[in-house]
Structure formats: C-alpha cells, structure tokens
C-alpha cells in the first residue's frame, strides 16, 4: 500500500467533512487535473476551478458527507469507492456513488483524478425494463414499430 495515497484519502475526507472549500483544495496540487470520462466536457485543470466547484457543492449541500466504502492502492495511484450523501438546500436528497482513480504527487496531493461517480437513480426500473426501453428507442429511431 502507498502511504501517500492513504495520506491523501485521510486528508481529503477530513477536509470534506469540514465543509471548507479552501481546506479541500489544499489537498490538490496546483496543476491538478480532473477528468470525467463519462462527461468529458466537464473535465478541468487547476485549483481555482476546484475551489469554485467545492464552494458550490458546500453551498448547495451544506451537510455533505463522503464515505469511503473501499480503496485499493498501487504506487502513487489509488482506486477509491465513495458515497456522497446529504440534503440539498431545496430539501431534496443528494446521493452519489462511484469510483475515483486518483494519482498523488510527492506531497500526497491529488495530481490527477478520473471520476466515475454518478447520481444514484432512485427509479424502480429493472434492468429488463431499462433494456426494453432502450430497444424501443432504437426501433423508433430506425423507423421500425
């Protein structure tokens, strides 16, 4: 296990629990890179955008809690499964789950992250219903009944 990645996770979770955007951003390298492979246009580089993001998150979900569900460490990289939960200021629940692949620098700061985290779909649609709807959409797009 990498002590640096463990240190990062510990520092990040404590910073997030403080709901202080500046403290969270201190966990990131100045030229940190955040990629969202499922939403590529949302990727960014740098602490300033990270600070804006975390400020918005804490303003919108003031009781945000991040739980580390599991982690695997290899060198300067870790795979962290996280659960984000809380209540938004409009009273609606905030729930996200996923994995972040994190690379840290020599100071245990995040230098690169790939986010595979999504909002939890609370609908009661089974996998069969989901696939049938996908198939129906494909038929409609192809002009078939």
UniProtKB/TrEMBL annotation:
<feature type="domain" description="SnoaL-like">
    <location>
        <begin position="11"/>
        <end position="105"/>
    </location>
</feature>
<dbReference type="InterPro" id="IPR032710">
    <property type="entry name" value="NTF2-like_dom_sf"/>
</dbReference>
<dbReference type="Pfam" id="PF12680">
    <property type="entry name" value="SnoaL_2"/>
</dbReference>
<protein>
    <submittedName>
        <fullName>Nuclear transport factor 2 family protein</fullName>
    </submittedName>
</protein>
<dbReference type="InterPro" id="IPR037401">
    <property type="entry name" value="SnoaL-like"/>
</dbReference>
